[in-house]
Amino acid sequence: MAEREVFLRFLQSRRVGYFSMEVALQQGMKTYSGGLGVLAGDTLRSAADLEIPMVGVTLVSRHGYFRQSIDANGRQVEQADPWEPRDWAAPLPAKISVQIEGRDVWVAAWLHVVTGLTGFEQPVILLDTDLPENGAEDRQITHFLYGGDASYRLKQEIVLGIGGVRMLDALGFPVHMYHLNEGHSALLTLELLRRHKMSERSVREGEPLYDVPEVRALCHFTTHTPVEAGTDRFRYELVDRVLGPIVDARVLRQVAGAADLNTTRLALNLSEFVNGVAKRHAETSQKMFPGFSVSAITNGIHPTTWASPPIARLFDRFLPGWQIEPELLMRADVALPDDEVWQCHAAARQTLIARVGADAGVALDPDKPILGYARRMTQYKRPDLLFTDFERLKTIAGRHPFQIVLAGKAHPRDEAGRRAIEMLHASAGALRGTIEIVFLPNYDIELAKVLIPGVDVWLNTPQPPMEASGTSGMKAALNAVPNLSVLDGWWAEGHIEGVTGWAIGNGEPADGDAASLYDKLEHVVLPLFERREAWLGVMKGAVSRNASLFHSHRMMRRYAAEAYLR
Questions:
Q1: Residue 12, domain extent
Q2: Are residues 269 and 293 in the same domain?
Q3: Which end of the chain is more exposed for a tag (fewer CB within 10 A), N or C?
């Protein structure tokens, strides 16, 4: 009865339905793969802190993404990473069905609650097809995050988008807007079109089949994809077989693309408000999709989640209220004592050093600076840029010794990303004895909370303009770790040379980024690390000028003002 009363409270206020294929809710809930899911989790956590009524919708992903290990040859090995929903969520009584390949597939729901700093509760609905009513194949639709072939992915997107809208309706949620976090949930717009079909009389008089303006008014789309190749596309032959005639075929091709169903195009055409996740990313998206208006709301991170315990305690003492009002961190450069900032960082470094020793059997030198790099391993993020010239690296290390800690997963079907991990392994071997390089496997929330605060410099090397936002660098800044990064994504806005960190290159596609990286390391960054007082100035500059702005509270206030309250 108590659980039912708690759930009924969620139905008392109008909410934004926030749809995302992945959401990072808790370390033990394997419902995320990387940055997109972490952003979704931070979005819901900040909305809870700010008491913005939302309801999250995602898939239960019972078998997770994958657990990564690295074999003796440096190859990524993927293993299933299952979790038990009952340990983290409560089953809900409603069931709905969606049509897949002409048959009814039943979908159930689990409820997980995100609680904000003030006690405000935010419901998250986890959709699940592993039900006795379904056949063996359909029971697996919500098992593997980003698993399977195009048919499997399309089925997942049907469950998320169409099934998610129907589930919220069945549960009684009064939803006044649907926020699509990337194109995976774009099929929800087709369910809304179906519900807003015009009357037969209007159709006979030559009016549109569907009330498109009404559907657009209900939808807000956040795009994270900086290249056309990154969007989901499904052949209409597959769509016709798997999805069937949910809306008129002619209309579908008008709103989703003539050649194939392009989920980004579908979301763009049927959303009134569209935003990119950084100023430069919005500009790139605007060029990719002329004719659409793409606003820029730069991503942010949830302050309480990503501040390491030592730095959080320091903020509590000298900048009370920072958790709800992170703008207070702009006073960090004058309010935080240098010696205490260094002591907090030293504690985070020691935690990382201990973790490296336990996981990799490597004893890092506490007196040498640590460079950190942890991203999804894929070609455009250029994880190999630092290792372009071994001899140059050896020369730099001979003058200014340093060490490197790496992490990141490659999608199982991304062969270039998998080869990049092998390359990093080979580079570590080639430089052994000169530079200690450690790759920590299975990068996840828990490891990120150790790795990011514990390094001295956060490295990011994407090929511009292909970075969407890149929130890991924001987490570093919150923990007083300066960035050394290509001028793309959020860093194009957050970079102040020598104040918050340092730039690699000029932000344009070029072949000189490796040389720029080496020059900055040899002549600026590593020599400055040897001057403690000057280095602390950059550490505090990262907090005061970056962490005070690039947080998800600011992001959510802008979403509320510019999109949700239209």
A1: 2-299+556-564
A2: yes
A3: N
